[in-house]
Amino acid sequence: MVTLIERIQVALGLARTQVWQPGHYFSSGDEYQRWLETGISRIRDMTDLQELRLLLGHRNGYLREAALRRVNALHATALWSEVFQLCNDWVAPIRDRAKRTALGWLPDANIQTLLQHLPALADLRSRRREDHAALVAQFESWLVEDKNLAALFEAASASDSRKLSRYCFVLLERSTFPRARLIELGLAKADVTLQGRALQMIRNLPAGEQAGYAQSLLASPRNYLRWYGLDMLWCVDPAKVREVAMSHLLSPYAALRDKAFKLSGLSREALLALAGQRLRSPGASSSDIRIGLHLLGSSGKKDYAELVHSIFLKHPAPTVRGAALLALARLSPDDARPLLLPAVVSESSAVGRAAMLAALTLELKPSQAQWRELAAQATSDAVAQRLHRWARSLGKWLELALLLEIASKHSRHSRFCFAGIHRWMAAFNNSWQTLDPAHREWIDSNLPRAEEIGLDMKTLKFFLN
Q1: Contact 223, 258 (CB under 8 A)
Q2: Distance separating alpha carbons of residues 77 and 227, to the nearest angstrom
Q3: Does the chain have fewer CB atoms within 10 Å around its N or its C terminus?
Q4: Which residues are CB-contacts of 243 (< 8 A; sequence separation ≥ 6)?
Q5: Helical H runs in 204-304?
Q6: How far apart are CA 187 and CA 175, in angstroms?
Q7: Distance between CA atoms of residues 44 and 71, nearest Å
Q8: Domain ranges for the chain
Q9: What single DSSP character describes residue 301?
C-alpha cells in the first residue's frame, strides 16, 4: 500500500532522495534550496488534483504556497474545502493567498458545488477569528441570496450531516425564506439543536400564531416537544390549557406529567382518584396502567393495595405486573413479601427485575434453604444473573456461596459462575475464620463442584484459609 509520504515523493519526483525519511537532515543550505526549487518547479506543471490536495497539506510552507498558486491557476473549485482550511494556516502569506483564491472563485460559483464544501466553511466560521471574518461574511451574503435559498433548504432537509444541516438552517434564518417552512423543517429533523432554534422562532411570533403551533407540538410523538407545546399554550391561552393538561396527566414522560398536573389545578387526592379510575377501566392501555401504578405506589395510601394486588395477579402484560409488584411493595409490604421470592426467578425479565428491586427496598434476606431453592430454579442465564446481583448486594460470602450452589445445580452456568468467583476473589476483603459456620459448611459442600468447572482450587483455598 502506497503511503501518503510516498505519493508526495512520487508527485515531486523525489522518491530516491530519502529527504522525507524521519531523522534526515540536509547536509547544507544549498542542498535544501535545490530540493525546494525542484519541488516548486514540478508543482507549477502539475494537473493531478489528488496530488495537489496532498500538497496543500504539506508541512513545508513554500510547497503549500506553490500548490495553492497552481490550484488557483487551474480554478480547481473541487479543492474549495482545502482552500478554506488554508485560510486558517499558521503562515500569514498562505492565509492571505488562500482568502484571495477563495474569494476569486466566488463570482462564478455554482451553489451545488459550494454546498459540498459548506462544512469546511462552517469550521472556519466557528473559529471566530477576525482575519477571516470578512471572508466568511462575503460567502454567507452570497449564499443567502434569493436564487440560492431553495438549494439551501433542500440541503438542510436531505443531508445526513448534522453540521451541514445546522449551518444551512442558520443561513436560512438570516434570509427572506418563509418562517413557516423553516419552523416545520426544524421540528421535523431529529436534531435537538434545530428543534430548539425552531422553538425559539415560534416564541418570537405573535400570540395568535403561537397558539396554532402549540396545538401541533402537543400532537408531536416526541415527549419534550409536547412539554413545550403545553408550556406555550399556557402562555398564550391560559383558559384552554387546563382542558388540554388533563389529557397528559398519565403521560409516561415524567416532566410532561408534572407540568400537566401543575397546570390542571387538580389536588393530589383528585389525581390519585383519576389514576385509580383509569386502572379499573377495561380499555386502559398498559402504559396508562403503569403510570397509574407508579402514582398510587408513590402516594403510600394503603386503600389502593387491594386493587394493585389484583392487577399483579390478573394482568397478562409482564411490564404491568412488574410495576404492580413495585407499587404493592410500597403500599403494603406484608402483602408483597410472599410474592417476591417466586417472582425473582420468573422468566419474565420485567417481573424478575421488579421483584429484585422490591426485595432490596424491603431489605428482604432469604434463608439458606430459600437461597438453595432459588438456585435450583435458576434454569436460565437471566435468572442466574439476577440472583447473583441480589446476593452480591447482600454480602461477599453470600455471593460466593450462591455461585457455587448454582454451579453445583446447573452445569450450563459453569462459565458464568467461574467468572463471578474470580471477580469475587479479586475484590476479596473478608476473613474466612469470622464467617458464620452455616455459610462455611454451605461453601465447603460445593467446593468439589468448583474443581469440576475448572476453578483454581489452590488459589481459592488460599482465600478460604
Answers
A1: no
A2: 46
A3: N
A4: none
A5: 207-218, 223-236, 238-246, 254-264, 268-280, 286-299
A6: 19
A7: 10
A8: 278-364, 366-465
A9: -
pLDDT digits (tens, 9 = 90+) for 307-364: 888 888 888 888 888 888 888 888 888 888 888 888 888 888 888 888 888 888 888 8
Residue 427, SS3 per DSSP: coil
392 near 406, Cβ under 8 Å?
Answer: no
Mean pLDDT, 10 residues at a time, the chain of 465 residues = 50 44 57 85 90 88 92 92 91 93 91 90 87 89 92 90 90 92 90 91 87 86 87 84 81 82 80 77 78 79 83 84 87 87 86 87 83 80 80 72 70 62 57 57 60 50 47
The x, y and z cell numbers of residue 280, run together, are 379499573
Residue type, 150: A
Nearest to 340 by CA among 370, 369, 314: 370
Q: At what angle do helices 381-394 and 333-344 cross, to 10 degrees?
A: 130
Nearest-5° Cα angle at 192, 187 to 195:
25
C-alpha cell at 30: 544549498
Cell for 17? 532522495
Q: What angle do CA 423, 429, 435 make, to 5 degrees?
A: 105
Name the pTM for this structure: 0.61
* Whole-number Å distance between alpha carbons of 104 and 148: 19
